[in-house]
Amino acid sequence: MTDLSITDDRALTYFAEVVSAGSIRAAARRLFIGPPALSRTISSLEQRVGEELLHRHATGVRPTPAGEALLRYVRAREDLDAILADELSAARNELSGKVRIAVGEGFLAGLIEEVLPSVFAEHPAVSVEVLNAGTSDIRQAVIDADVDYGIGAHVVPDAALSVIAESTDSLAVAVSPHHPLAEVSMVTCTMLAEHAGAFLLPGFGLRALTDDLQRDEGTAFRVRMETGSVNALVAFAASGAGYALLPGFVTRPYANLVSRPISAANVSQVTASLLAQAGRPVSLAASELEARLSRYVQDLNDN
User: Fold this and answer.
1) DSSP class of residue 109?
2) I need a labelling partner for 252 at 20 to 30 A (CA). Which of 31, 58, 75, 224 fits?
3) Distance between CA 184 and CA 51 in Å, rounded?
4) Residue range(s) defining the domain that contains residue 13
5) Average pLDDT, stretch 33-62?
6) Do residue 78 and residue 43 come from a single domain?
7) Is Transcription regulation found in the keyword set (predicted)?
8) Is residue 4 domain-resident?
């Protein structure tokens, strides 16, 4: 029988980070240590556990069945640590702990400006770790329990995900007030094909909706710029260089943008979702933040 008492917390934390990052080198950058030192730590952990924990290949690593079991153990320990911290905080009449959130860039400003200030003011001992990521990475981070919550657009459903709150808006054309498309009341896909556009890279929820629109309408849009940043799309459109396809809850805060509806048989609806891992217990600090995150997501259409 494997005796995990011979392992140390640092090695387990490093192992979980390697699995999350997908490679020794990427994890080493996150942990601010050298790749050789991290590799030695993982090898030592494998010797202590008596099992190979990682499949090593040219592009990175992935956990073996034993590694997946150990990762579940690490996550369960983290959850128990959070519960203990809750109970100790309750004994002191103080809410404390760290809450981890993965968010799409389009929601980042709202999270920081509208949600977190009141949390920090009311609960000084609560801290938040924010990961800015694309939709597919947000989804996987929630499923893998790398984060407590995720906020993303157009998230593919999964039995391992629990949707806590949602808000829906139509995909629309965002342009500068001086752009020719700002002069029309409704934009057709033929018009879009005549002008330059900026789009998110594959892997983002909004990009999937854009690709669906092109396929359904039999149109090929003119791609002037591709990016992994929603802020870059906003800046591109505001500069007058072209258009970006964004939901209203992203563009409404920007006075230098106008939004025009798309004339198409099936205009995509963009759903923003607050996600958690199904059935996973959360700390009191996470529960407190969940209520505020839920209100934020539900109110996106009211801004």
Assistant:
1) H
2) 224
3) 65
4) 9-69
5) 90
6) no
7) yes
8) no
Where are any strands of DSSP class E within the chain?
A: 54-57, 60-63, 96-103, 125-132, 149-153, 161-175, 187-188, 196-200, 222-227, 243-247, 258-263, 269-277
Q: What is the pTM of this model?
A: 0.69
Report the DSSP beta bridge partners of residue 292: none
Q: Are residues 144 and 172 in the same domain?
A: no
DSSP state of 55: E
- Domain holding 76: CATH number? 3.40.190.10
Q: Retrieve residue 125's tokens.
A: 């001992």
| Final residue before a domain boundary, out of 69, 92, 115 | 69
Percentage helix, strand, coil for the chain under 3-state DSSP, each rounded to 5: 50, 25, 25
C-alpha dist (Å) from residue 83 to 24, 139, 220 = 30, 24, 52
Contacts of 41 (CB under 8 A, 6+ apart): 10, 11, 14
Q: What is the pLDDT of residues 62-101, one digit of tens each?
A: 999 999 999 888 888 887 777 777 677 666 667 788 899 9
pLDDT band at residue 264 under the 50/70/90 scheme: confident
Burial of 80 (0-12, 13-18, 19+ CB in 10 A): exposed
Q: Are residues 88 and 142 in the same domain?
A: yes
Phi, psi for 197 (deg, rounded to 5): -130, 160
Shared domain for 26 and 43, answered yes or no, is yes
List phi, psi (to 5°) of 160.
-85, -5
Paired sense of beta strands 196-200 and 222-227, if any:
parallel
Is residue 3 situated within a structural domain?
A: no
Residue 53 has pLDDT above 90, yes or no: yes
